[in-house]
């Protein structure tokens, strides 16, 4: 689970990260990374729309993404704002595939 300082909570933060951040697309997710000059802890946000599936499926995908980000937290640079958007195909893939895709994007765009 991600601690409160590691979560994006305001809609304006999501919007700024998606509009101004760099983008890394995978087959099942799209990761947006915004880097600020601050040295605060990195913050994560997740977008899982209804197109992904039922509420149970969406919450499962969100929990998987949170687990991957909590695991990758030490390798992400401070001040980064990261939004991960799940695509509909994320509902059918296993955890290891989802993890590999997110970690690849985080290493490319937000690593220390």
From TrEMBL:
Q: Which InterPro entries match?
A: Ribosomal_Su5_D2-typ_SF, Ribsml_uS5_D2-typ_fold_subgr, RNase_P, RNase_P_CS
Task: Say yes or no: keyword tRNA processing present.
Answer: yes
Query: So what EC number does this one have?
Result: 3.1.26.5
Q: Which Gene Ontology molecular function entries are recorded, alphabetically?
A: 3'-tRNA processing endoribonuclease activity; ribonuclease P activity; tRNA binding
- Catalyzed reactions: Endonucleolytic cleavage of RNA, removing 5'-extranucleotides from tRNA precursor
Q: Name one GO biological process term.
A: tRNA 5'-leader removal
Q: Which GO terms describe its cellular component?
A: ribonuclease P complex
**Recorded superkingdom:** Bacteria
Q: Which UniProt keywords apply?
A: Endonuclease, Hydrolase, Nuclease, RNA-binding, tRNA processing
Cited Pfam families:
Ribonuclease_P
- Does the entry feature the keyword tRNA processing, yes or no? yes
Q: Which family does it belong to?
A: Belongs to the RnpA family.
Q: Which HAMAP family match?
A: RNase_P
Any idea what job this protein has? RNaseP catalyzes the removal of the 5'-leader sequence from pre-tRNA to produce the mature 5'-terminus. It can also cleave other RNA substrates such as 4.5S RNA. The protein component plays an auxiliary but essential role in vivo by binding to the 5'-leader sequence and broadening the substrate specificity of the ribozyme.
What PANTHER family has UniProt attached to this entry? RIBONUCLEASE P PROTEIN COMPONENT
What is this protein's name? Ribonuclease P protein component
Q: Organism, per UniProt?
A: Microbacterium testaceum (Aureobacterium testaceum)
